Amino acid sequence: MPELNGICAVVTGAGKGIGRATALALAAEGANVFSVARTEADLIALRDEAAGLRGKITPFVADVTDEEKIHLLFEAIRKWIERFDLLVNAAGTGSFGPSEEYPLEEWRRTLETNLTGAFICSREATRLMKLYGGGTILNVASIAGKRGFPQSAAYCASKWGLLGMSHSMAEEMRGTGIKITALCPGATDTPFWQSMPFSPEPSRMMKPEAVAEVIVGIAKQPPSVVTDEMVILPPEGVL
Question: pLDDT tens for residues 26-51?
Fold first, then answer.
């Protein structure tokens, strides 16, 4: 099982939720993590919390839809780190409501962040990983990428699209040493649910730290194993 000590990783959406838990879990394994989010205060707090861990967390303030800024991040990794092993696309957003009343600007914002942002980061990652002989890209999709939920048209569309992108790029990367996984979690107890018109009890949801453990496990899989897609759910099933 590959060790994560000393690897270079990028985690988007690292300010909150699954992305934050994943950045901390990777740093605990000794990874050098570039944490990407839009809110600097969240990233500084994350860096400070990781101060006693084996690895290091370096904040990088950016919107994943900013193609130029994301390119600068990966260029800096190429020039100064000279290795790149893991990308976790955990940045995500969502707003909800009846489709007949849903604003087009919210539709565009959701798809831009959840799908286009993941594509921009994945494109940069594959270019860099090919220089170093391989790596892993993990896209945090959702059970909403597998089935429809009411008042969630934009969110479901973005996650179905992310799932399709993951599978397409996985086929392109066969034989290159680059592995691409789509992870589809069910309900997870994160601030994301505050924007939902319906929400299960937090006690019935998975914790972000548990999802992060799964992500670390995928990153540790042997080179001979590829997980194209994984669905994880709370014990009660789809919530």
Answer: 999 999 999 999 999 999 999 999 99
